[in-house]
Structure prediction request, 394 residues.
Amino acid sequence: MIINKLNNGARNIKEKSLTLIVISTLGVVFGDIGTSPLYALKLSVEATKSVGAGFAVAVYGALSLITWALIVVVGIKYLIIIMRADNHGEGGVFALTALLQRKIGKGPIVMILGLIGASLFFGDALITPAISVISAVEGLKVLNPAFQNYIVIISLALISILFAVERFGTSKIGAVFGPIMLVWFLTIGALGLMELIQKPIVLKSLNPKYAYKFLSENIGISVLILGAVVLAITGAEALYSDMGHYGKKPIRISWFSVVFPCLLLNYYGQGALLLSDPKTIDNPFFRLAPDWGLIPLIILATIATIIASQAVISGVFSITSQAVQLGYIPRLRVRHTSDEFGEVYLSKINIALFIGVAFLIITFKSTENLAGAYGISVTGAMLVDTILATYLLI
Prediction:
């Protein structure tokens, strides 16, 4: 009996620990993809420049494309297939590169692909904080158009805070950010559900035929449409790179139990709102909120986008550390911030990222201006992952 009690106690501690880790992953791993609803559907529909009856077709098509991108690219490709390829627990493009080199030798093609993928991911890590924070601060324009003049200044201030706290380490940041992101996901899911109940017909976008029909009828601008749709899956590469921080199981549990359902509810809620009132295309995410909830939602979105930026930044630290170990870049001072996880912090990389992000915010100033560059970096990084993972599977 005593042994059974000890075993039960150990099991309870393990389950509690897993629960805490799952919540922590929400703050570090899924921040990027979790804030995509701020702009992804809006930019996808706007890419078609549709009006009248064509607007409804664009909404159904964009929703269908986003839905199946989340299912196929994030759920199946990354979480089920690619995350099986870990290099001593580490993930990311260099983990794939190292695994392939052990299988087939250190060929130049594999190394070049790995370096290209890492470079594109670094570009993603520069653009993500810029576009995420700006998209949240732009919610102030819904509150009062006069805030337009202060978006850049406020965004720079928030980014400065983000990079200042990076040195404390992923686990400490995740312990604080995780519960906040849990509130974020539950909030955006609830907002989407309330609107979805009003117009459930939007659920027919779950049928992939609407995605196919939408693209086939817009072949001339299909690249633009897909470039906007891919913004809904930004962060997939980051969650793979962050695998070494938490392991596969907590990340998979977080996605399938919290992140994916809440994202779908919000996207479909936005779609229902757009079908009811096409004028809300100016900012369908913030238009979901009731008047009394707009300011709290803007505050929550701002905090969530700061957390979103943390996801790719921690991924950059991990990939840079692997690059140093593989001899691809000169040695840098790598500080381990936790004994429990493969967490690292590189001060020089942190400073370089801050300068780059600040430059992008000052230069581009809006989500629309950044969207094109963002789509290219994300798509390119994912393409390299696909090539390397396919070769490894073969």
Remarks:
- The longest strand covers residues 335-336.
- DSSP finds 18 helices and two strands in the chain.
